[in-house]
What we know:
Elements: H1 6-17, E1 24-32, E2 38-42, E3 48-50, E4 53-55, E5 60-63, E6 76-82, E7 88-89, E8 92-93, H2 94-99, E9 107-115, E10 124-137, E11 143-150, E12 186-189, E13 198-200, E14 216-219, E15 228-235, E16 238-241, E17 254-258, H3 265-272
Antiparallel strand pairs: 1-2, 1-9, 3-4, 5-6, 6-11, 7-8, 9-10, 10-11, 12-17, 13-16, 14-15, 14-17, 15-16
Amino acid sequence: MLTATPELTALLNTWRSDTRSAPFIAELYTWTLASGAVIRWTAADRDIVWDGNTFRRGPGISRSQISRQAGTQTSDLSVTLYMDDTVLQNGVPLAQFVAGGGFFNAMLLFERAYAPAPGAAIVGSLPKFTGRMTQLTNTGESQATLVCSTWMSLLNVQVPVNQWQPPCLHTVFDTGCTLDRRSFAISGIVQSGSDALTLFTGLGAAIADGDLNLGRIDLTSGANAGQTRTVKAQSGGVVSLVRALPSPPQPGDTFTAYPGCDLTRSRCAARFANLAHFKGQPYIPTAETAAP
């Protein structure tokens, strides 16, 4: 990308000395997707050729004002795309591409290109904003707003990444925990008296009270087949769910349950025998308040 060429400098100097000779200004948007693909659009009423690249008239584009301030505060630029089914990206309507996360973590370079007059060749451009997409709002069939933040936003991270805390930083069965969920699967059958929030399972003799607390239950047959719910509490064979099932399960419906973990050292050792991968600091002293 070329910027502040001698031709552009001369054009802007002429404009400053004679405001009646205002140059033609085209706004250029270069999106670099996470896949590496590059999309070049312009808000002008025609395609713009600059620096060997063609910026095409794609969707309608509007943007927010750009604010600049000293210090480490992050500046944002909101770019709203107006589209219909005729605007395609990767062979699908742009609205579908955006809603499907096509611009997730995409990088944006916004610049202004200048020409002596409409229709004349671009003589230079000035970058006005560069950053990455951090938020997607107002998504719909006809428009979407992509909020982009400057690279300063990368400083808005927790340092260090891991906090010192008594509970384990892993989630049971995740890659850090390393345990295989399938090794702890418990199969059962729904008993009579169950409803959408409470299951009678007949597992009371097979598992200890509370073993399924914070765990998961997968319905594998019946009207709720394929549904997964987090276990709120389990006492004996009675399992209470955090969120109701779409329909009350019927006696004979099958399920697979998995134990939960409260992230304490004792639970990790006694139930999962996995202290080698426990990532908590249980012996951190509790906070104390000095007497006045």
